Amino acid sequence: MHGLVFDTAHLLAGGLVLVSFMMLYQDRLSALLNTFALHALVLALSVAWQAHAQDAAHLYVTAAIAFLFKALLIPVVLRRIVQRLGIHRQIETVVGIGPTMLAGMGLVALSMVVMLRVTAEAAPLAREDLAFALSVVLLGLLVMVTRRNAVGQVVGFMSLENGLVLAATGAKGMPLVVEISVAFSILIALIVIGIVLFRIRERFDTVDVHVLDRHRGEQP
Amino acid sequence: MSAALINPVAVLLLAPILAAAVLALAPGYRLGARINVAAALVTFAAAVTMVFADRPVPGDYLLVDDLNIVFVALNTFVGLTTSVFSAGYIAHELDSGRLTPAYLRFYHAMYQVLMFAMNLALLANNIGLMWVAVELATLTTVVMVGLYRTPAALEAAWKYFILGSVGIALALFGTILVYMAAQPVVGEGMAGMVWTVLIAHAADFDPALLNVAFVFLLLGYGTKVGLAPLHAWLPDAHAEGPTPISAVLSGLLLNVALYAVLRFKLLLAANPLAIAPGPLMVGMGTTSLVFAAVMLYRRRDIKRLFAYSSIEHMGVIVFAFGMGGPLANFAGLLHMCMHSLTKSAIFFGVGHISQVKGTQKIAEIRGLTETHPWLGWGLVAGVVAIAGLPPLGIFMSEFLVVSSTFAREPLLAIPLVAGLLLAFGALLLRVNGLAFGEPVGSTDPVKGSCVPMYAHLALVLGAGIYLPAPLVAWFQNVASVLG
User: What number of C-beta contacts closer than 8 Å exist between A and B?
Assistant: First the structure.
């Protein structure tokens, strides 16, 4: 493993974790969407570097999908939705930024401890990638649970999927079927989300999930 | 063209997808409902042919073996009866204005897409393909749960979508880890995703990586099985969607997710150095069972009541498979079949009841046996079956689970029996209020037929009294495959 290949991959994957952290403290929806675009951009670079390092041409396709679809298209569409709903104001985060960041650090430490220990025999590049990927997945989960707003939760979910793409590309020679399916699933997911969001809009004029919680089907 | 020339596996996958395309375009709900039933019938016929035909050679993508054939047969059978029930149910929803014709077209198409996705997940020989199919099934059901567009339905769909996606994401991470474990042994590329290749080489995989992978897979697919504490989506999704979908969710989709867990359990069991997957499954199964049994007492919504009962029974099934061994596996398999048949029968009944009464609240439904004898007694029979009273099939499978547990781990039998008894009490308490006493509410006659419900109940009763020898031999064979 020569130095530059490894270091660059390391830098990009680490950058993805860093951007995940940045998402944690965004308290405006439009800023959160910008950060997500950056997240997808770093992912695209990371995947492209993996394609170069592994000499796997099909990974360039994955990188292109990540760039065009997730870094450009989705943030634009979501921003339009957010503006139409007029909710680009303050996000009501459930927990304060301090505890959230601490929890995030705990999760990253956890994923390092777990993944680096169990992958002792794997190639170093794949090993680091997997540990970072798990961090991104867990941080995505954290973003989801700390947002009340439906759009914020969707962004958290998409950053989680970015972590999965990072893991899939890090696993050398993994068949393309999975990467395409990941991209495809996000497309489907967006359609579903779109439908759900528009329906929510019709019914309540808000996408705050806490309002939905009042409509528990089981009142005494 | 002779039957031998038609490949049943191809029919199983192509019939639903073609039907979905036709249904998306077909005008009129009557025609749609008929096409839906016809497609389900063709699929079921293909599954029956597959049971008796020779097993095709497993390829990179598809596999037919003793294990998944049981699931496919059950899946297509309940798919068929549910489509018959759905035809009557949907006509009423159209009359009452809860659904428009355009939504019905969408509903029928989605029903067939769901059937396709479930069959694909069951037949997949490729862990990547299996994941894609389970994800497709999840997304389809999310849309169906939100079909009524009421605030409660939207909340349920959203919750299901978020929790289901997180589960499915964790499962993908687990799948990637399995590939990572396989890659040094079987080489790069497709081989590392093909289940038959994986199981043949599982003994040489890195055990630590497999362990972590299994934890992710159990959490991921376990969310879809509805295991506590990952079950939060399940009651809402069952209660707010159309009732045929509740029947399919409880009867089939939970099984499909369980099947995925079982496949990976086999993989882990084939590696001597990896942790034993059994105790994890026993732990989650017991938690779900006891938790759901306690929660049953506090339910006020009839569909939620039976949704929690599904969590309870999935707990029992996962417990049985976690115990392992020929007897417990046999019991788990039998219990799974019996639960699917009984629970979908109950949901058929509940669908008619909530339509007649115009409510799902338990307190507002009383005296069904007087106003609607067929429906009321059908519900009583279903609840008696699901609570595990003899001579019905669930009594037998639960008895097998309990007795095999007593023989091997007497201490584990205590929470098991306690959970079963708690659930038993709750269900009988509720059905007493629903079925007997002074009638309350509308007494309109039932539109739609009770035939699917009674067909399922007859099968459950038959299985409780006498299991045919070939069926026993078949299940024993599968149980031994499961290790």
Answer: 140
Predicted-complex ipTM score:
0.86
What are the tens digits of pLDDT across the range B125-174? Answer: 988 889 888 988 988 898 888 888 777 887 788 888 888 888 888 898 89
Q: What's the CA angle centered on B252, arms B456 and B471, to 5 degrees?
A: 55
Nearest to B394 by CA among B451, B309, B299, B300: B309
Q: Note whether residue A96 is domain-resident.
A: yes
Q: Which residue, B115, B319, B153, B78, is CA-closest to B222? A: B319
Count of C-beta atoms within a 10 Å radius of residue A106:
12
Q: What digits encode the pLDDT tens for the residues B16-68? A: 999 999 988 888 778 888 999 999 999 999 999 888 887 888 888 888 888 88
Structural domain contains residue A27: yes
CA distance B160 to B224: 10
Q: Which amino acid does the sequence have at A61?
A: V
pTM assigned to the model: 0.90
Best of B103, B130, B173, B178 to mutate (most A CBs within 10 Å, chain A): B173
Can you tell me the distance from the alpha carbon of B386 to that of B392, in angstroms, rounded to the nearest whole number? 9
Residues with Cβ within 8 Å of residue A3, at least 6 apart in sequence: none
The tokens describing B421, both together, are 């008894």
Which two three-digit tokens encode residue B135? 């994800």
Backbone angles phi, psi at B400, to 5 degrees: -65, -40
At B137, which amino acid appears? A
| Cβ atoms B273, B209 nearer than 8 A | no
Mutate to test the interface with B, among A110, A111, A118 (most CBs of B within 10 A): A118
Pairwise CB contact (< 8 Å): B189 & A122: no
Strand partners, A149: A208
**Burial (CB count <10 Å: 0-12, 13-18, 19+), residue B418:** middle
Yes or no, beta carbons of B154 and A144 under 8 Å apart: no
- The C-alpha atoms of residue B456 and residue A110 are separated, in whole angstroms, by 48
Residues 133-152 of B with CB under 8 A from A: 135-136, 139, 142-143, 146, 149, 151-152
Instruction: Please state the separation of Cα B242 from the chain's center in Å.
Output: 16
> Whose CA is closest to B234, among B297, B323, B299?
B299
Chain segment A130-166, per-residue pLDDT in tens: 889 999 999 998 988 888 777 787 788 888 888 888 8
How close A199 gets to chain B, by Cα (Å)? 7
Give chain A's count of helices (H) and strands (E): 9, 0
Amino acid making up residue A25: Y
The residue of chain B with its CA nearest to that of A195 is B143
* Count of the separate structural domains present in chain A: 1
Angle at B64 between CA B60 and CA B66, to 5 degrees: 140
Question: Does residue A175 have a cis peptide bond before it, meaning omega lies within 30 degrees of 0?
Answer: no
> Residue A32: which domain range?
3-213
Identify which of A129, A219, A125, A127 has the alpha carbon closest to the alpha carbon of residue A167: A129
How far the first Cα of chain B sits from its last, in Å, is 40
Assigned token pair, B366: 């009383």
Q: Is A204 among the domain residues?
A: yes
Pairwise CB contact (< 8 Å): A114 & B139: no
B58 upstream amide cis, omega within 30 of 0: no
